[in-house]
Amino acid sequence: MEEGRLAYRVRTAEAADDAALRRGIGTTLAHPDHTGRRESYRGAASRGDILVLERYDRPSHEWHVAGFIECHMRVDDNLSIRDVGTTGEEPQTAVVRYLLDQAFNSFRPTG
Fold first, then answer.
1. CA trace torsion 86, 90, 95, 100 (10° rounding)
2. Nearest to 86, CA basis, from 48, 38, 32
3. Beta strand extents in the chain (DSSP E only)
4. Distance between terminal CA atoms of the chain?
5. What mean pLDDT comes out for the span 37-52?
6. Using CB atoms within 10 A as the burial measure, which of 25, 40, 46, 76 is most buried?
7. What contacts 11, CB < 8 A, 6 or more positions away?
């Protein structure tokens, strides 16, 4: 594959992302064995608790889910991570590390 053919972005998930997350995510921290699947991502997405990593496929001009992290900042300023997931049968450690880094930076307390 040519250099520069893929681009990535991180954004806050929306309730409409529920179907793409359920379809694309294979392995999660909460369901590592593939036997169970999460009912819905809609509630957490509507609260703004999910960050989605997407990759852009230039030939098809479409964004595809690569992973997600569900987390929120607690009242005591501690980041609580509820779930992390990636596409594919095996967890993608580079995607998980990148999402953790993005979550720590996004939810860093100000001041």
1. 80
2. 32
3. 6-12, 25-28, 50-57, 62-73, 79-87
4. 44
5. 87
6. 25
7. 51, 52, 54
